[in-house]
UniProtKB/TrEMBL annotation:
<dbReference type="InterPro" id="IPR016163">
    <property type="entry name" value="Ald_DH_C"/>
</dbReference>
<dbReference type="InterPro" id="IPR015590">
    <property type="entry name" value="Aldehyde_DH_dom"/>
</dbReference>
<keyword id="KW-0560">Oxidoreductase</keyword>
<dbReference type="InterPro" id="IPR016161">
    <property type="entry name" value="Ald_DH/histidinol_DH"/>
</dbReference>
<dbReference type="InterPro" id="IPR016162">
    <property type="entry name" value="Ald_DH_N"/>
</dbReference>
<feature type="domain" description="Aldehyde dehydrogenase">
    <location>
        <begin position="21"/>
        <end position="478"/>
    </location>
</feature>
<dbReference type="InterPro" id="IPR050740">
    <property type="entry name" value="Aldehyde_DH_Superfamily"/>
</dbReference>
<dbReference type="InterPro" id="IPR016160">
    <property type="entry name" value="Ald_DH_CS_CYS"/>
</dbReference>
<dbReference type="Pfam" id="PF00171">
    <property type="entry name" value="Aldedh"/>
</dbReference>
<comment type="similarity">
    <text>Belongs to the aldehyde dehydrogenase family.</text>
</comment>
<protein>
    <submittedName>
        <fullName>NAD-dependent succinate-semialdehyde dehydrogenase</fullName>
        <ecNumber>1.2.1.-</ecNumber>
    </submittedName>
</protein>
<dbReference type="InterPro" id="IPR010102">
    <property type="entry name" value="Succ_semiAld_DH"/>
</dbReference>
<dbReference type="GO" id="GO:0016491">
    <property type="term" value="F:oxidoreductase activity"/>
</dbReference>
<feature type="active site">
    <location>
        <position position="257"/>
    </location>
</feature>
<dbReference type="InterPro" id="IPR029510">
    <property type="entry name" value="Ald_DH_CS_GLU"/>
</dbReference>
């Protein structure tokens, strides 16, 4: 069923609980489709609440010994897992493209990016250190220890089926936590392939558990079970706030990477060629289906026409088609509701006065959304306040810097923002004024392993990647030793 894999064993149609690859006791499965063709590529078990509880139990048992392993041993196992990801990168990329749709070149990029978190946190595992605080009394020492939080629930979305898992599991395992992962029901096979490689790397049974299936029942157990001490979630703000509420009774630690509504600001003094390239990169990556994709392109009046013309010329030439066909820059959208939302946003914008400046051709049939540039966008349009999550580039015209900042910050979200200017004074001013967790000056990309990733306001809590990423999985213990 899965053509082209050099190691067919990486394609698993089972959940992973306590080191066993299992089906649901009910026999229930869910089908996973290739978004490029709508063909079913396989099934995974629809795991129940009881089975989720068993996975949590397995993670708890494994935690008792995993937390006590020397950091160097945990690091060595993560290094091995990383090497296997590199070795099998081509297969992992193919599985990713088949279930998610992104062009193979981007899938390869995601596998490299995903693996890099495992490497990075293998290195950070060796640097989990505490401190000694001078005590007020002479007979005392206060030792500050860093300890693993405990069993962690990891719930991830379909847009980065590999990297959103490694960005959480890398630091969790490095810190000494064990995990129960619930991948998106649209893209479970990338997660399961990572499970196969973790097993081959020698990561002990129960340290990584993967429960597949529909979210409600699994999510209810993961959030209610008191053994789970931490939830790390990437997905929509709507679901993030539901999960936060579900975690409230047992007061779990939370990391939430939620939606964005990224502004991309082009000032009159910008390098326009660079700004167009940056806009293409930030807007159309993964077909526009990332939480850091520019959602609103704000262009100052003096360069509006020139920028619009350059961007339109580039977008009109974009190649759309199956991700497995070389040369395609944009693959299919993930599902029919995604297409509906994109069409709704474009229709709403056109009805409210937007101008269609460019549209790339799309293959007939299939789940494709045409890349478009819309001119004269305004704040009354749905696409100004909601994430479109598709290849739609709306251009908003502004006159002054103050107006641009007000427009950019005029959203409940605060994940990523980008701006282009050649003035260092403006660079500092605007960089300070933007209320976002990540800001790019003269770049359309802010995602890298070494930099903290995360948002403010309704875009979430906590940071992933970078040195701080491991803190999300550590508790601080103040150990007061008296009578010395
Ligand atoms: P997106 O469509 O942007 O990925 P979602 O927030 O719908 O965002 O999904 C992200 C992840 O959250 C997926 O793994 C999905 O299955 C899961 N999810 C959705 N609803 C729930 C829920 N009620 N409880 C637990 N997980 C959920």
């Amino acid at each position: 069923k899965f053509p082209g894999l050099s190691d067919p064993d990486l394609f698993r149609q089972a959940a992973l609980i306590g080191g066993n690859w299992v089906q649901a006791a009910s026999g229930a499965v869910i089908e996973v489709t290739d978004p490029a063709t709508a063909a079913v590529i396989g099934t995974v078990p629809d795991i129940s609440g009881d089975e989720t509880r068993a996975a949590i139990k397995a993670a708890d048992i494994a935690f008792q010994s995993w937390r006590g392993r020397p950091h160097s041993e945990r690091a060595a196992l993560l290094e091995k897992w990383f090497s296997l990801m590199e070795e099998h990168a081509e297969d992992l990329a193919l599985i990713l493209t088949m279930e998610q749709g992104k062009p193979l070149a981007e899938a390869r990029g995601e596998i490299g990016y995903g693996a890099s978190f495992v490497k990075w946190f293998a290195e950070e595992a060796r640097r989990i250190d505490g401190s000694v605080i001078p005590a007020p009394a002479g007979d005392r020492q206060i030792v500050v220890l860093k300890e693993p939080v405990g069993v962690s629930a990891i719930i991830t979305p379909w847009n980065f089926p590999n990297a959103m898992i490694t960005r959480k599991v890398g630091p969790a395992l490095a810190a000494g936590c064990t995990v129960v992962i619930k991948p998106s029901e649209f893209t479970p096979f990338s997660a399961l392939a990572l499970g196969v490689l973790a097993e081959r790397a020698g990561i002990p049974a129960g340290v990584i558990n993967i429960v597949t299936g529909m979210p409600a029942e699994i999510g209810a157990e993961l959030t209610a079970n008191p053994v789970v001490r931490k939830l790390s979630f990437t997905g929509s703000t709507r679901v993030g706030s539901i999960l936060m509420a579900q975690c409230a009774p047992s007061l779990k630690r939370l990391s939430l990477e939620l939606g964005g509504n990224a502004p991309f600001i082009v000032f009159d003094d910008a390098d326009l060629e660079a700004a167009v390239e940056g806009a293409i990169a930030s807007k159309f990556r993964n077909g526009g289906q990332t939480c850091v994709c520019s959602n609103r392109i704000l262009v100052q009046a003096g360069v509006y026409d020139a920028f619009a013309a350059k961007l339109s010329a580039r977008v009109a030439r974009m190649r759309v088609g199956p991700g497995t066909e070389p040369g395609n820059e944009i693959g299919p959208m993930i599902n029919a509701p995604a297409i509906d939302k994109i069409r709704r946003h474009v229709a709403d914008a056109l009805a409210k006065g937007a101008k269609l400046l460019a549209e790339a051709p799309v293959p007939a049939g299939g789940q494709y959304a045409a890349p478009v540039v819309l001119g004269e966008a305004s704040t009354e349009m749905e696409l100004a306040s909601e994430e479109t999550f598709g290849p739609v580039a709306p251009l908003f015209r502004f006159e002054t810097e103050a107006e641009a900042i007000a427009l950019a910050n005029g959203t409940p979200y605060g994940l990523a923002a980008y701006f282009y200017t050649e003035s260092h004074k403006r660079a500092w001013r605007v960089g300070q004024a933007l209320e976002f967790g990540m800001v790019g000056l003269n770049t359309g990309s802010v995602s890298t392993t070494v930099s903290p990733f995360g948002g403010v306001k309704q875009s979430g809590l906590g940071r992933e990647g970078a040195r701080v990423g491991i803190e999300e999985y550590l508790e601080t213990k103040a150990f007061h030793m008296a009578g010395l």
